[in-house]
């Protein structure tokens, strides 16, 4: 078995490989000095395809793909993700790339300003999903601290017509007709930064990340700006499950590939102090759907540390559990977070991490 880890950073893409459970070997940087805010590893068919969203600075954002595990890269002759002229806007960043689990050649892309794009050629060219752009609430959407970004895409693996998204600071929206129409789905999610009496709005919640369990697709977990939530009906209703945590403020939330009741979060002190709780890296795990939590840190630096973990800088799958930090450290675990080993140090600011078994 070979595991592949893709690490997108502020200054380039790093690939690391592990054979038969051995140590990860980090390869030389790709796209040096170029920001890589989004990555996907598409293993649905041969050849395995890597997709990378890139930030070229004053040249603007773009997207490339590789069919030989990063040896060579291709780029569409015209901008692969572009807003229609009628929108009066242009692409700022590709925040999310996600191969559809229900449609073999479909890849979804989440963009800034908040928009959803669909590719039907494995991520080479895209078209904007008009229904979300034209949603009647859009004139009232406001950006979060990171911008008006669509950072999470949640396609239903058993029904290609059902898909959901999360955007900051817009909230969670879902569609039952392939994106033609959308509804806000934020019931019971509290937005304490709003005035008293208006803290449960239809939309306007600052959702940081949403994770879906692949074997139980109705089960979703959501990390809010303030709060951790679970849904058992694909976002129809949400239940607060963050009361057992030392802090319910954070960015990533990750589910176990086999156990729908097991998940991980990375608590930070607070909105005003975005450093790890206790000034050390601690990964908190729940084994019962959020009813109780336990922190793990064996093998991680004892501290003090001050760097956070960004919303897409953590992932879990058959290869293990992984996360990267804003000070360029990358860690892995093969026992569900109970102990950790170091994969890389002194990389640039880690923006996203993805893993796959090849």
From TrEMBL:
Q: Which domain of life is it from?
A: Bacteria
Which Pfam families does this entry report, sorted A to Z? BNR_6 (PF15899)
Q: What are the recorded Gene Ontology BP terms?
A: xyloglucan metabolic process
| Gene3D superfamilies attached to this UniProt entry | YVTN repeat-like/Quinoprotein amine dehydrogenase
Please state the span of the N-terminal signal peptide per the UniProt entry: none
Q: Which CDD domains match?
A: Sialidase_non-viral
Task: Enumerate the InterPro entries for this protein.
Answer: BNR_rpt, WD40/YVTN_repeat-like_dom_sf, Xyloglucanase_GH74
Recorded protein name is Exo-alpha-sialidase
């Amino acid at each position: 078995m070979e595991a592949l880890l893709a690490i997108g950073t502020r200054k380039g893409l790093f690939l690391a490989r592990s054979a038969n459970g051995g140590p990860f070997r980090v390869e030389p940087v790709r796209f040096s000095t170029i920001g890589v805010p989004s990555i996907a590893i598409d293993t649905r068919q041969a050849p395995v395809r890597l997709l990378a969203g890139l930030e070229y600075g004053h040249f603007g954002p773009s997207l490339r793909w590789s069919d030989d595990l990063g040896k060579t890269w291709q780029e569409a002759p015209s901008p692969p993700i572009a807003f229609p002229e009628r929108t009066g806007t242009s692409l700022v960043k590709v925040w999310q790339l996600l191969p559809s689990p229900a449609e073999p050649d479909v890849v979804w892309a989440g963009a800034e300003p908040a928009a959803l794009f669909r590719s039907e050629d494995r991520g080479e060219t895209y078209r904007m999903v008009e229904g979300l752009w034209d949603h009647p609430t859009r004139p009232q959407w406001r950006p979060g601290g990171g911008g008006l970004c669509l950072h999470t895409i949640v396609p239903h693996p058993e029904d290609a017509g059902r898909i959901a998204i999360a955007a900051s600071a817009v909230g969670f929206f879902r569609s039952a007709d392939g994106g033609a129409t959308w509804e806000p789905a934020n019931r019971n999610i509290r937005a304490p930064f709003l005035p008293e009496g208006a803290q449960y709005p239809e939309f306007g919640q600052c959702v940081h990340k949403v994770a879906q369990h692949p074997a139980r697709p109705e089960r979703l977990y959501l990390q809010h700006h303030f709060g951790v939530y679970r849904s058992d009906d694909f976002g129809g209703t949400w239940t607060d499950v963050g009361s057992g945590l030392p802090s319910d403020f954070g960015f990533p939330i990750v589910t176990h590939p086999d156990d729908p009741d097991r998940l991980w979060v990375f608590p930070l002190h607070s909105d005003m102090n975005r450093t790890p709780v206790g000034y050390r890296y601690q990964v908190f795990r729940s084994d019962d759907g959020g009813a109780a939590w336990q922190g793990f840190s064996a093998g991680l630096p004892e501290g003090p540390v001050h760097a956070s973990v960004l919303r897409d800088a953590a992932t879990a799958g058959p290869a293990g559990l992984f996360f990267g930090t804003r000070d360029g450290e990358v860690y892995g675990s093969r026992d569900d977070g109970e102990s950790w080993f170091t994969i890389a140090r002194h990389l640039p600011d880690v923006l996203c991490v993805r893993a796959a078994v090849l």
